[in-house]
Design goal:
- The chain is α/β, with parallel strands linked by helices.
- It has three domains: 95 residues, no CATH class; 69 residues, Alpha-Beta Plaits; 277 residues, P-loop containing nucleotide triphosphate hydrolases (Rossmann fold), CATH 3.40.50.300.
- The protein contains 16 helices and 16 strands.
- A hairpin with a 2-residue loop joins strand 13 and strand 14.
- It starts with a helix and ends in a 5-residue tail after the last strand.
Length: 489
Amino acid sequence: MTEENKKTVSISKGLGDAFNQGIDACINLIVKGIEKLFAMQFRENPFLTPFLVLMVPIVTYLVTDANLIASNFKNCSIFAKEFCDLIANVSFETSFISWLVMISISFLLVLGLFNRVFNDKFEKLVEKLNLKSGDGEYPKIKRIKELDQYKTLLTMNLNGVSFEKLKTQKSTIESILDMYVESIDEGSSPTVAEITLCRRNLPDSITYSSLSKDEVLPDNSFYVGRSRSGSIIEDLSKLPHMLIAGATGGGKSVFFKQALLGLLQSSPKMEMYLIDLKCGVEFKDFKGLSNVKIVKSVSEAARVLEAVEQEMYRRYKLFEASDTNNIEGYGKDMNRLVVAIDECSLLFDNPTSDEAKSAKQSVTNLSRLARACGIHLIVATQKVTKETIPTHIADNIEGRMIFRIGSLQGSLQVFGDKSATQIKKHPGRGIWANGDERANVQTPYITEKQISTLCKKINSDETISVKTVDSKTSEKGKDDVLTLRSKQP
């Protein structure tokens, strides 16, 4: 074979290989496009349904005007003339199917190309993380699934890399992908990890009124705020206790009051005891409500907490007599009861006061035992230490709304890590935690005037008083005696 023939064969072989590779690439892109099409949710992608519906009239128009198309382009070249004559002479059905197939393939190719570029970003993640096992193996992307318009689930084979080591790379993953890591969880086996990513940003601000227009509160509920996944509404009956902590200016007080307001709006018969040792100034707007008692001193707080503790035991005796073990199974009219303590450090971090010690013991018992009988604790503090939030109380409070905390010690106390120190300095920005689940949130803002207006409306809507705590002072000047007087059985 001559050199020229060899060269021709080599060129032909190269063109053939390139053609085959091109066909393989197109097929792969079409497959990726089909995967992307099935992953796309019609509800979350409103453009998709009208586009697919419009394909039918578009194709019909192209087929109907085939002769016009042919007449416009048949003079371009001999090939174009023959091609256009072929289009003009085929049947309507054949032409319709041909155009539909061509447009569908083009659509899937574009969709597949987009999916390929999208996936390449995740493939490069593994290289940039530089995580290696002892054998020099890298983690490998197993599957990429779009959960909705904003969320993507990345499933990864760890290939010997520890799960805990991967979790420490959260901020690095966010930086590489420019996406928020919502969670890093173990998958179907210890060698598989699932990373949930989100492309939605948190709003800079959100108001209580806007949330209340968009989301109606179910019974016993309050607004937490808006996360990257949407609005968060929490049911206090499932929580059942909550800690609110954060430095001044972070939004702690506003969140505390809007949560109480939400509970009162969603559950008009809920009884509240609001302990504010700063002379009750934080809760002044709730003062006129008939089912709210505001407590202003350590001595009064100790008596109220002891009375609530006794009510807890009374309820358990009723449950025992009714052969049930919780308020849901009791089946009779029994109101839920909330004890809210603002700046609990003033009450707990007071080692010289016997009344403060008594109050702390009652809170400890309530945090451990009150879950099933419809009695709930909400405690708030600016100062976070082991003294202000004792460990034996904190361990029994699963719901936590944490705003920025300045000290590592405080962050370790509420989360066991430094995440509370890394919260953005922005009013209302914080981390909501319920057990092991966490979410960055923007909490709702409400003015004092709005709280006052809504409290007056709640009061005007009430028909009976459900307040259960009375304070009486004897003529001899003895201490107040607080008794829990319930209208329930």
